[in-house]
Amino acid sequence: MHLVRDVLDKKLTDRENCPMGRVSGLLMRVSETGQPRVTHIVIGGATLWMRIHPVVGRLSSRLRKLWGPGRREAIRIPWSQVQTVGRDIKLDCKARDIGALDWEIWLARNVIERIPGSGSEEEE
Amino acid sequence: MKKILQLSLGIVTSVGGFLEIGSVITAAQAGAQFGYKLLWAILLGTLCLIFLVEMSGRLAAVSKHTIVDATRERFGFPFFFIVLIGVVLIAFMVLVAELGGIGFGIQILTGVGFPWWAVPVSLLVWLLMWKGTFGLIENGASLLGLVTISFLVSALKLHPDWSSAASSLLPSMPDGDKARYGFLAVSILGASISPYLMYFYSSGAIEDKWDTTYIPINRFIAGLGMTFGGALSMAVLVVAALTFQPRGIQVDTFPQAALMMTTALPRWGFYLFAFSMIFACFGAALEVSLAIAYFFSQGFGWNWSQDIKPSKNSRFAFIYTLIILLAAIPLVFGIDPIKVTVLSMALTSATLPLAIVPFLLLMNDPIYLGKYRNGWISNTVVSIVVVISFVLAVISIPLQIIGG
Amino acid sequence: MRLKRLVVVPLVMAIGCKPPTPAEQLDSIVSWVSTAKMAGDAWLRHTTPDKYTRQTLELSGQMLLETGSQVLRSPPATLDSAAFDRALTSTRFNIAEMARFVEEKDAGRFRQPWDSLRIYLKTMRDFSASAAAGK
Fold first, then answer.
1. Cβ-proximal residues to B107 (8 Å cutoff; 6+ apart), any chain
2. Core-most of A45, A76, B121, C25, by most CB within 10 Å?
3. Neighboring chain B residues of C8 at a CB cutoff of 8 Å
4. Which residue of A has its CA nearest to B65?
């Protein structure tokens, strides 16, 4: 599998086909035989901004620790949860549970749903 | 049957959605100062746009990716981020100009200055995006935009010199201010080849769930629709050439432009102009806002769709809400939308390679398009026009400042 | 490529700041007198609303004042400044009268100053032509 072409920056969807963002980075471990293996997919956080410049990455990390919904570190998903790699990468998990939608939920609750007509009244 | 309906709607969309403040003002200024001589720039820009729009649709139908999806995936985040900054900054300026255009249209009808309309107009645009579906926006705004056909009617009623106009479809050097000529050519190209249209179109194709069976229709929509649209732009130039140039009127301000159709269509010309600008700019404001929101959402992999309620794609909704509100601010402070228009059109031309080159690379990538990759014609036409635009921009913009 | 863009953008920003040449300023004056005449013509034929017409006439007058002052500050060699100043003042007065009669909805009295604009337009055109020729 060509990691950069087939995995990096690809869209991630969960068990229910809910979009989870894009692959920001990959964690690899080099085994004793010298063969690198992908252990985790990383979503968002400093990993993404680090790819622009390490300074930007550090700044993003610092800002994130100060403020923001949900967890403060980047989300790491074990490679074992990858179901299929095609047009998108399908994962065997729920987006909500692993924190991929923290910002989405926070914005929905604190900004969007406060504005009339956002459709939140129709949810049960 | 459904496809035929889609086809007609698509063409109507393109026609009604083609004109906006940028294409009208640049064409009017060109006609007023240089007569028919800049018709070639509209022709070239429209031709390029036809290919670009067709490519946008084809990419979406075949790869089920929008341009932004494919750009991020193929070129990686750092490059994508650079394109994001460039495209979004200029698209934001265009949004300010379009909202200003709506405000100006209302100003000439009511006598109340456009800064007062900035907030109500933005709210109306936002409301339509908040409550409306993609279909409603795409079709509704464009059907209203058909009032811009009045420019074509005006042009015909003024009995232009057809042979003179036809010969101006080929580029020629002007007698007067060459720096200004070059600058106007650049602005016209930037007004015709708006990258936000590509992003909007490819997202629309995904929203409408296109597949490879839509490829022939896509060609028709792009070809016929944009041709009609280009013809409308040319009509504006011709009308300006026949009404303003003989009188020595330069179109520096919107109130001057508003006189454009008063001789050709005495009873309704003024009001047709006002409503043309209001509806055309309204449609464009919706498209640009959506294009910016799509850019962020698709690029970062958020949930995005105009057809689902805002609470279900809060980041997408947040982006368009934010930018529409921000765009109203310069207008409230009285920043001249005409100046913003002309500047954003010239900047579009100067930064076209940033948007188009990665797109062209994608269109030739077998992973995304398989056997539907670009032929040599598409590649050649687009490359040539982009090079011309960029070179012209880099030469004439500084000359416009230093020379003269 | 990126460097070129860094150079182009600030240059483009400076476009609005580029001062016009005297010839361009005189062309602009012709443009505004002509605008006033065309707006007046449209109003007489009942094709434009009163508010728009009055505001456009006032805008024309204001632009003539601003641009005229700039020309007089550094006039081209071939320009007879005194004659130009007189013509400009009369033109502005005419346009102000036109605006007043639009506000009073008096088409009858409007005609005379509007008709006189023809002469002032020609005068301004002559000034502009001689400035362009003298370049």
1. B113, B114, B117, B254
2. B121
3. 350, 393-394, 397-398
4. A87
CA distance linking residue B400 with residue C15, whole number of Å:
7
SS3 letters across chain C = CHHHHHHHHHHHHHHHHCCCCHHHHHHHHHHHHHHHHHHHHHHHCCCCCHHHHHHHHHHHHHHHHHHHHHHHHCCCCCCCHHHHHHHHHHHHHHHHHHHHHHHCCCHHHHHHHHHHHHHHHHHHHHHHHHHHHCC
Q: Is residue A124 a part of any domain in this protein?
A: no
Scan residues 64-123 of C and list those with Cβ closer than 8 Å to B.
none
Quick one: fold of B2-402? Amino acid/polyamine transporter I (1.20.1740)
- Determine the length of chain A: 124
Q: How far apart are CA A111 and CA B313, in angstroms?
A: 12
Contact status of B65 with chain A (Cβ, < 8 Å)? yes
Q: How many domains does chain A have?
A: 1
Residue A26 forms part of a structural domain? yes
Q: What is the CA radius of gyration of chain B?
A: 20
Please, which chains are in contact with A (at least 3 CB pairs closer than 8 A)? B
Work out the mean pLDDT of chain B and round it to a whole number. 91
A51 contacts on B by Cβ (under 8 Å): 76-78
- Residue ranges per structural domain of chain C: 20-133
ipTM: 0.90
3-state secondary structure of A11: strand
With an 8 Å Cβ cutoff, is C38 touching chain B? yes
Residue A54, in any domain of the structure:
yes
Residues in chain B: 404
Q: β-strand A19-30 against A11-13: which pairing, if any?
A: antiparallel
Provide the 3-class DSSP secondary structure of residue B258. coil
pLDDT at C16 over 50: no
- Taking CA–CA distances from A111, the nearest residue in chain B reads B318
Longest dimension (CA), chain C: 63
Structure-block tokens of residue C48: 């434009």
3-state secondary structure of A41: strand
CB contact under 8 A, B347 and C9: yes
Domain ranges, residue A15: 3-119
Residues C91 and C95: their CA atoms lie apart, in Å, by 6
Which positions 6-25 of C are in contact with B (Cβ < 8 Å)? Answer: 8-9, 11-16, 18, 20-21, 24
The CA-CA-CA angle for residues B61, B63, B66, to 5°, reads: 75
pTM: 0.91
Query: Which residues make beta-bridge pairs with C91?
Result: none
Phi and psi, residue A84, nearest 5° = -135, 150
**Residue A110 Cα to chain centre, angstroms:** 21
- A104, A14 in Cβ contact below 8 A? no
Instruction: Give the pLDDT band of residue C118 (cuts 50, 70, 90).
Output: very high
Instruction: Tell me the pLDDT tens digit for each residue of A33-76.
Output: 888 888 888 887 788 888 888 888 888 888 887 777 766 677 88
CA distances from B182 to B269, C10, C16 (A): 30, 18, 16
The overall longest dimension of chain B from CA atoms, in Å, is 58
Looking up tokens 């009208």 gives: B24
Rounded-to-integer distance, Cα A62 and Cα A50, Å:
12
A89-91 and A11-13 strand pairing: parallel
Q: Mapping DSSP to helix (H, G, I), strand (E, B) and coil, where does residue A92 land? A: coil
Report residue B164 as tokens: 């003179």
Are the C-beta atoms of C63 and C105 separated by less than 8 Å? no
| CATH number of the domain within which A101 lies | 2.30.30.240
